[in-house]
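All the exercises in this workshop are built on plain-text protein records. Sequence and backbone structure share a record, each on its own labelled line. The structure tokens are whole numbers drawn from a learned vocabulary of backbone shapes. The record below serves as our worked example for the rest of this section.
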Amino acid sequence: MKIAQIAPLHESVPPRTYGGTERVVHYLTEALVAQGHQVTLFASGDSRTSAELRPIVPEALRLSRTRRDPLAWHLLQLNQVAREAEQFDILHFHTDFLHFPLWRRMRVPQLTTLHGRLDLPDLQALFAEFGDMPVVSIAQHQREPLPMARWIGTVYNGIPAQNYTFRDDPQDYLAFLGRMSPEKGAETAIQIALRAGVRLRMAAKVDRVDRDYFDERIRPHLDHPLIEFIGEVDERGKNELLGGARALLFPIAWPEPFGLVMIEAMACGTPVIAYRMGSVPEVMEDGVTGYVVDGPDAAVEAIGRLDAIDRHACRRLFETHFSARRMAEEYVTLYRRLLLQTTRPANDATAPLGEGMSRSA
């Protein structure tokens, strides 16, 4: 099958350090190539891939040495995809909804994975208008704000099992990995660790928009002997951090669409202590891969019960439900279903093709 993967340009594929969507696109692309498909990746020029790369901008926008307009470059990307569209059997977009007005008038089969939060008021009007565009959720919970969208399946994110080393001998620390932002619960993680009296190692990027939060709410804690901030980490650093931790703290304060770091921890055998929000109850299996809790008191109490979690069981559940190979196979199933409908008029908003392709909560 000839497949086009269209990635955001904010980070390279894969990202050098932090980056969720682009990392998933990388894992999916590599798994599809390994399965024998002809894949073309439309991404930034500093991307690394086994597929054929169509570089759009010389380097990823977030870390670029030259300030660039993201909208301009994403429009240029869509223009290049449109020029080459007839070469492919299927187009897979990971770039939100910018392409909707153009692609509803084109007959090349396409689908869009929505990787972000969908509880924003303006999106209801958008998806009411573009109810013919086939979209994929990364968790069932993610769909709830947009029941009018044309959901064709749910495919949970996956990561390569070989990238993460199982560890049965953790050190005496907790881990936090993500963005230094209020919604990711960075300050809450610090408070939980301090109350439990356990060392916390924090690896996170600090975006410009979160700089004030970091300076005002996080930096004052960094002098405490239990709190260590190590900045952004690459794939190797992430593997070492998560594998060596007694648990990952994930005290989110927003409807997390998926939470890639949870399955990264599971791949290392590391349990997760996560707040019951967004996709957490779908991704986690309470009491098996860690604990799903409802606040800081329960999180502190859960730290005292970590010895009851079997790290081998964490790894086994990851291998069963969250591998990159499984993710690619489920997307190929959706691709084939769409190919069977190539004669449908472009503006025909029909019923969904099918529901959840993965384990449902």
